[in-house]
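Q: What would this chain look like folded?
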Amino acid sequence: MRTLCAVALFTVGAGGLVGAEPKTYESKEGKFSAKFPTTPSVQAKTAGGLTLNMFGSDYEKARGGYLVTYTDLPEAVLKAPQPEQVLASSEKGFVDTFKAKVTKSSATTFGPKKYPARQISGERDEWHIRTTLVLVGNRLYQVCVFGPKDFMTSKEADDFLASFTLTQ
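A: My prediction, written as structure tokens:
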């Protein structure tokens, strides 16, 4: 899980116009939509036997970015633990991989069906990150914004995180 998070955050890289009006991007296979500022780059990486599907767009020419990832977890991972344990393990992977200091973490639910979720804010050096983890069945979504501190508190970051929705 740690490797997946590392791959997700460091492989985003889509050029584009800064300041463009965000457009809704829908992934039919991923069953989600989100408003990216530019058409996101789409990549699939395999790490630890899992496929991580990544959709990312830059913030100010690689100063940070907008990212949605999803991966389907094997049934063996989900048999014993409760959803909250899966999300807590994902948060621990985030901390271990990035040596990040978690500044805020809270369990929550997502959407009208109240899927188990966790909101995390963290920092390491000049990098700041806000992410929402959502567990839907065996699919784990990560919705992230990352970059300088002023970006983390911006309307653009808030709007992107709020734009993520699950589709059919």
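Residues 2-166 form a domain with the Protein Transport Mog1p; Chain A fold (CATH 3.40.1000.10).
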